[in-house]
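User: As part of a screening pipeline, I want to sanity-check one entry by hand. Below is the sequence and the SMILES for NAP. Please return the complex as structure tokens so I can compare it with the automated output.
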Amino acid sequence: MKQIGMQDFAGKRVWVIGASSGIGEACAIALFAAGALVALSGRRVQNLQAVAQHGKPNQSLILPLDVTEPPAIQEAYQKLMQEWGQLDLLLFVSGIYIPLRADNFEMESAEKTINANVFGPMRAVAAVLPNMLERHSGHIAIVGSVAGYSGLPKALAYGPSKAAMINFCETLFYDLQPKGIGVHMISPGFVKTEATAQNDFEMPALISSEEAAKHILDGIREGEFDIHFPKRFSGFLKFLRLLPYPIYFWILRRFVKI
Ligand SMILES: NC(=O)c1ccc[n+]([C@@H]2O[C@H](COP(=O)([O-])OP(=O)(O)OC[C@H]3O[C@@H](n4cnc5c(N)ncnc54)[C@H](OP(=O)(O)O)[C@@H]3O)[C@@H](O)[C@H]2O)c1
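Assistant: Here is the complex for your manual check:
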């Protein structure tokens, strides 16, 4: 499903939230190379400063923030607008993964996950929407996960948080496409980052964060709504979720050994 793409990132003003490591860092570096102005957000200021070194001195804006603190996002956005006057793309990458299953399920981790992975992106979208709606232009891209497609092991809070993002993006698309605002729902499979370094199982179809960034930027350029990758893995999971539950769970129990 296509909509207006961004075609060329040169000179575009992009806000990457979650730019201090992993997929967000790789996206920021690729955006610098494509000539975009990039605002870098996350909690680790030193990491953001190191990422900024990949661009020219006036190509970046460092806006440290914690997505679980509502005023921090608003304040960072105000600063961005004061500096640039406009935002062309919000790329929300930030997210946390705490492995949870039934025998270690507890609310502190669950609430932390929902706060960062659901309310975080919602807060950022709430900040940028009024101006984009006024201008009838702009793009909103949110990194969810294939873990949001259907129930998977060790994702008792992460899975629901990413499923919520799928629904959020679908609903945003419905509202915003007629208004000329692009919406991009990004569903990566396994990507080699700090977040997956903790996994103690073999990750199928694992790709690098640079490959992930290429999929993301190509998808936004081409105006894709549903940006999922690598297709050999994300496509298979899309197929699995269409199966009747007895077959779905049989396949999961038979082949997923975690
Ligand atoms: N790696 C994978 O296999 C995979 C697969 C599917 C989806 N994803 C999704 O991809 C996104 C990026 O993950 P990654 O693998 O690149 O992990 P990562 O290297 O751990 O990066 C996570 C990013 O999120 C930021 N972040 C986390 N909590 C934050 C908070 N409270 N406030 C501000 N920033 C925060 C981190 O910055 P600070 O720590 O500096 O705050 C960091 O920049 C996540 O949404 C993840 O769910 C990853």
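Points to compare against the pipeline: The first helix runs from residue 22 to 33. The first strand starts at residue 13 and ends at 17.
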